[in-house]
Amino acid sequence: MNPGIFLIQENDELVEMNEQAYDSESLLQTLLAKYPALLAGNQMEPSAPRRWLLIERECGVPSEEGRGGRFAMDHLFLDQNAIPTIVEVKQSTNTGIRRQVVGQMLDYAANAVVYWPVAYMQERFAASCDDPDEKLTEFLEGDMEPEDFWQLANKNLQDRNIRLLFVADEIPPELQRIVEFLNEQMDRTEVLAIEIKQFKGGERTGLVPRVIGLTAEAQQKKLPGSSALRRWNEASFLQAMEEQAGIDEADVTRKIFEWSKQNVFRITWPKISFSAVLDYGAESSYVPFVVYAQGKTPGKVEIPFKRMGQKNPPFNTDERRLELLRRLNEVFQVNLPNDSINRYPTFSLSALANKNALEQFFQLIAWTVQEVKAPLGKLSL
Questions:
Q1: Structure pTM?
Q2: How far apart (Å, rounded) are the C-alpha atoms in residues 129 and 125?
Q3: 3-state SS assignment for residue 290
Q4: What pLDDT, in 10s, does the model give residues 223-245?
Q5: Which of 73, 134, 164, 381 is 20 to 30 A from 85 (CA-CA)?
């Protein structure tokens, strides 16, 4: 039995929270659907925590072409790199958690990669939420176009680049050994278990997830550059840019990298692009641009106007986004239409190939940073 958790309240009262079993397996399934962060993506990859988009709960998997779902997995998620993530939930009191659940999971995976067109995932996602377009755009945070995201999901399925997650309130030793073995042996598929313990004290409930299966051997096999889970870095991204767009575009990208790093931007690495992210305030982040090396828009710069409008005052007003659009059009003659302020328009890196043009782009981005930080009294980089 876990020794428990102790919470210090604002009035200095100490509340002891003790481990308690879930009332049902269904409750744990419901909690995962409502709070996907319980899948502990920060433990899987601390440098780039996994985020989760729920496609469907009780998602059907056919076993023949064109047939209905023979199996029903507990949850299907995609992470921000569009890696299909199959989740099977069991309570520790369920005897199937030791070996039977492994056979179930392998059935799901083997049939999904063969009989699951990405259009099926899109259809199930659209049916599971009220506004799928808005939800997907919010999830992508301007890092990728929705169409590119679905294409990447399709490629991941074709490449068998998927993730299998066994979730329970307690992972028995037998299942842990199987998970570690599979994760070490499977180059293209990540296999992990997540133990989510529940603690209660008074009216409070605490949930504590722990990822199991990240052995040193498994992590070594899935290092950047491996066939399983390629992770971009500056060198590999520039190489891809040169191959997909050209030497000039790669040179401009290199200069954008350097400027971003010098000006306190955090670089994030979706699979086909890089984003410059500025963290400011308590929980705010600002993405002024995204650069694409692959997909439908290699050698392009995206200005995520729609994300700015949702997350970054004063650009939450049409007037201020139109001002930014006007400056882009005047300086770089990219001729973006006015409705771009509600979308994620792109223009070619070649527009920034001239030294003066690139310097003006940096000045324009610096101006936008000053604007979003102004309410905090931070008027410079």
A1: 0.64
A2: 7
A3: strand
A4: 443 333 445 788 889 998 999 99
A5: 134
